[in-house]
Amino acid sequence: MKFAGVVVLYNPDKMDVLNNINTYINHLDKLYLIDNSATNNQDKFKDTYLNKIEYIWNEGNLGIATALNVAARKAVTDGFTWLLTMDQDSKFKDDSLLYLEEYVKSEFPKNSRLAIASPFHDTVLSSDNKPDVNTVDKPIIVMTSGNIINLDSYQDVGGFKDWYFIDCVDFDYCLNLVRNNYEIHQVNKCILAHELGDTVRKKLFGKVYFCDNHNYIRRYYIVRNRHYIYDEYKNDFPDYCAAEIRCTRAEVKRIILFEKNKVKKLWYMYKGYRDYKAGLAGRIDGVKKRD
Fold it and tell me: Which of 4, 14, 40, 257 is the most buried (most CB within 10 A)?
């Protein structure tokens, strides 16, 4: 069983990216660097891991979903059936990717419905609630970074939806898999150190709030795409979909209480909702009726 991997790049810092890649490259047979930057960064990586890395420039920002699809289709063409999906700012602790690969090798022959093997994401949000490392959970959603995805099930459900662009790309993909009777396994022995942007803790009247401090453009995509998720999956996963909408209301509260650029962020959240109601999707500066 061979494993390929993909890192989605956007204006990458060479040393930061390579330091992260160093935590998993030795456990992969091939690594695709899919670059959504406005400029070609091939020179930064041309002398690195020559026998394993393939750099592909998208000639601009085509979004997370498209970048993942480019890599997945390339991996299928190259004969791989498993693909590790990574953000450029994520890294594995120690050699813990091995635990994930070993789990896939032992579990998949017994369970062909295994579509994603995911690590435990060690983030500021999870620091106080870490699971037993000897357990395996079966969530309905996981974040993209650190996952090993089965490319047969990827093709069966139609891959990632390009028109989401960014945000909710991973959650839509997971819910689509589970709705089609595939399984997601979170192997808690495998630990991924994952940066969640500028997330910080804030305390007010004895209550702790986590503020992600997303910029106004991200706020647009989050609101717009959450509502598309709700429409698509509310009958299959009503509790999850209702919780996502509640999250938007909670984020409005945190923006008003703690974050900078409040007016602009709230305006773009409204704009995201307005474009959702109009059936528009894709990149914010080129939205069109979604497929």
Answer: 4
Q: Which residues are bridge partners to 253 per DSSP? A: none
In this predicted structure, the answer to whether residue 125 has a pLDDT above a threshold of 60 is no
Please tell me the distance from the alpha carbon of residue 235 to that of residue 108, in angstroms, as a whole number: 29
Number of domains in the chain: 2
Residues 6+ positions from 160 with CB-CB distance below 8 Å: 64, 65, 66, 68, 69, 72, 169, 172, 173
Strand ranges inside the chain, DSSP E: 4-9, 30-35, 53-57, 82-87, 90-92, 114-122, 136-137, 147-150, 183-194, 200-204, 207-211, 280-281, 288-289
72 in the same domain as 31? yes
Residues 72 and 138 in one domain: yes
For residues 270-277, give the mean pLDDT.
Answer: 97
Which of 29-38, 83-92, 199-208, 248-257 is the least confident region? Answer: 199-208
Q: Report yes or no: 210 and 199 within 8 Å, Cβ to Cβ.
A: yes
Kindly state the DSSP code that residue 211 receives in the 8-state scheme: E
Mean pLDDT of 243-270: 90
* Domain's final residue, options 177, 194, 211: 194
Q: Looking at the predicted structure, is the pLDDT value of residue 251 above 70?
A: yes
* Residue 245: Cβ-neighbour burial (10 angstroms; 0-12, 13-18, 19+): middle
Q: What is the pLDDT of residue 194?
A: 66
One-letter amino acid for residue 71 of the chain: A
Which residue segment(s) compose the domain that 255 sits in? 200-289
Q: What is the pTM assigned to this prediction?
A: 0.92
What pLDDT shows up at residue 62? 97
Beta bridge partner(s), residue 192:
92, 121
